[in-house]
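re: ur question from yesterday

yeah so i grabbed the chain u mentioned. its 374 aa long if i counted rite. heres the sequnce exactly as i have it in my notes:
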Amino acid sequence: MVKAVTLEDSDRWRDPALTVRALRVRALMVPLDDPIVTASGTIEASPIVLTDIVTDGDITGSSYIFTYSPAALKPAADLIANLEPLICGQPLAPLGMEKALRDTFRLLGDTGLVGMGVAAIDMGLWDALAKARGVPLAVLLGGALKPVPAYYSASMVDEATAARHAEAAASQGYRGFKVKAGHKTLEQDLSVIRAIRAVLGADAALMVDYNQSLSLSEAKSRIAALDAENIAWAEEPLRHHDTAGHAELRAHVETPVQMGENWWGVDDMARNIAAGACDLCMPDAMRIGGVTGWLAAAALAETHKLPMSTHAFPEISGQLMAVTPTAHWLEMLDKARPILQNPVEVVDGTLIPDAEPGAGLRWDEDAVKRYQVE
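ran it thru and got these structure tokens back, copy pasting raw so excuse formatting
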């Protein structure tokens, strides 16, 4: 059984020979090949904040976060930059730093932009520690690098476009496929789902993501109709904070209910599990609290025997799945690909984690300069 790392583990998860010397934060607008279209809105480009934590041993730990809206890009970058006085001069100790930062924000709260900032620092510190030890993050955490089953993630599209995406996924060996749903009518959703199924066949795992777009009554009727379509999961049909609604829906339908990408920390995850709101879980590395939060989430998922998938951030998620006992599916949604020297690759439907020391992030500095915003 995996256990969440705690401050009792601090001596193991620190490098007393290294201290944080500087923090570099950059805001980027990274283009997407295709807009991400959902029933709740469209993302035209990726607002991304890069965080580099420089130690006095010339080892730099890196991370990135995704702010969804350009309006949140500069505020998120400013908040992370404002954390520099709190971490400079401190030892390379992710667990102690994570607790110290959350204690600092006890009165304000540690969700939203604060939670994103703490996670950015946490992921950067773990990356630096793995580099200092000369091993991939997965190995540092006690796991072993291995291919991770990945699924193709598609936007909300029409029937013909859905079929083209399914053909592309099949040609790359994907055995899992997710499409965003929530069209104006159930019939439109079903036509898209059936077009994908016709290409992928009966054995492929087909997931449907509503992006929080339905009312409870709509969700009951729409997802009940999916029960005959062999759907692997229906993701976030209701607003993410409607724990009671998801629990009621789950009791009404046979299709598994998936939640988690909008959980702010492990306490939020625990509340949803206790309420019976989901059959499966898929935390987001940023929102759940970085590496430290993910390890606690993985321990909780194991306790409740919940299959645990990932949301976005495939580079670090591929490393973390190696130490996730109930590891299920990895979402292949690599918004940072244009700015990486070493973007992750999918081979025969599985993601191959980066084998270099760290979490697998090496910036393409020319691309970073091209997309950086002031």
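noticed a couple things. The radius of gyration is 20 Å. also The first strand starts at residue 15 and ends at 38.
anyway ttyl
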